[in-house]
Known about the structure:
Structural class: alpha/beta
CATH topology: Alkaline Phosphatase, subunit A
Distance between the termini: 58 Å
Strand content: 15-25%
CATH superfamily: Alkaline Phosphatase, subunit A
Helix content: 25-40%
Number of strands: 17
Number of domains: 1
Mean pLDDT: 87
CATH class: Alpha Beta
Amino acid sequence: MDRSSLLHNTRRQFLSSCPTGMGAMALSSLLGNDTSAEPVTALPNSTAVKDVQFPTRAKRIIYLHMAGGPSQLDLYDYKPRLSALNGQLCPDEFYKGQRFAFIQGHPRLLGTPFRFSRHGQCGATMSEHVPHIAGVVDELCFVKSMQTDQFNHAPAQLFMQTGSPILGRPSMGAWLSYGLGTENQDLPAFVVLVSGQRGPSGGTSLWGNGFLPSIHQGVQLRSQGDPVLFLSDPQGMNRRQRRRTIDKIRALNEIRLQSVGNPEIATRIEQFELAYRMQRSVPELMAMDREPAYIHRMYGTKPGRKSYANNCLLARRLVERGVRFVQLYHWGWDSHGQDKGESLRYSFVERCQQTDQATAALITDLKQRGLLEDTLVVWGGEFGRTPMAEGRSKVYIGRDHHQHAFTVWLAGAGVKRGLSYGSTDELGYMAVEKPVHVHDLQATILHLMGVDHESLTYRYQGRDFRLTDVHGSVVDDILT
């Protein structure tokens, strides 16, 4: 190669033209069939961490996202003072100069209509509508001082899951797939399960790969019908023919990879290979009817139906098989009070009934199998609800979106049990003690997986990006 060609050759093009170039090495890693090999890690152009940077507490995550924003004031953050002032005009400092999604005028305070009582050795005060979760409360770590920058659904969901309210950033599961790889060559590292009235407002971008190689995007499984769309072989094609077809496509892609060195081609090759392997592994995974009857009673599952309960059981089966990150979305927590479908007394109670038993069963099941000690479970929405009534209806009650204070809880690997961290004021409006920002939660989750959130970066458009942007601190006080 002459000097002029070298000067106009990019680093990526040069490396890809080498016999042992980055593209070839990435492809070799991706196509390796040795199940005893180290986990598959990220493609080049990164500072992805193959070896964790400090002791790992969690090996896997199940993230339960209650899309729509569940009301912390009617679940976990009981405010007797708010109940005593129910119906009175809101203090000026809580609404003047503040931005809300829908509240207009001078709102009135809304105390919870539900009974609360203490549970467990930790004495946590919880709503009457989560009796099963109350039964495992000593396993939970509540963070009652969560704060976010967003108060509309799609931006807030994106912010919680990707660290940015803007489309195009990698999701948390994609970052972990990219940084830590997978433990099971026959299943994706990142799996998504959706239930409820519809999908989350943020759409598939909530589990997208953003600018990371697309092999790291979440793969959506369905608990009803074909578990993965387009996974089955075309009609009239047997497995041998399918294998030969994939081999021919791979050969063509390898030629192109060696020519241009684009890592996305290696990703495409791996996607074909993973899909082929999943045709064998997914049917066994989805065979939930093989679970004993007591497990179905514990979760409240009915095989073959689309439900949050089925997805919780499927999540346990996925982490048993080495899936790194399992994300559940359950829509329907948007309790504005404009009609019965968004009322605290009706739809909110229905969402509790749909999720309470299965959520508690998941914690219990993981613990009895010895999985909870190295599995992190996270529960929460994209924001909370206001202590003021929205006032859209004279018949139904509800609350507006609220960014200044909400509750999430964590359980399992590396998290203190039976702890309530942070607090809000007497009306539940503002986090006043030990506030935790969304970026802090993200940093803490990565830390539990053995990853420094400041080190897991990817260079894109001339700068290094990370999940927590330029923010975030690990919340050490909730860690064991």
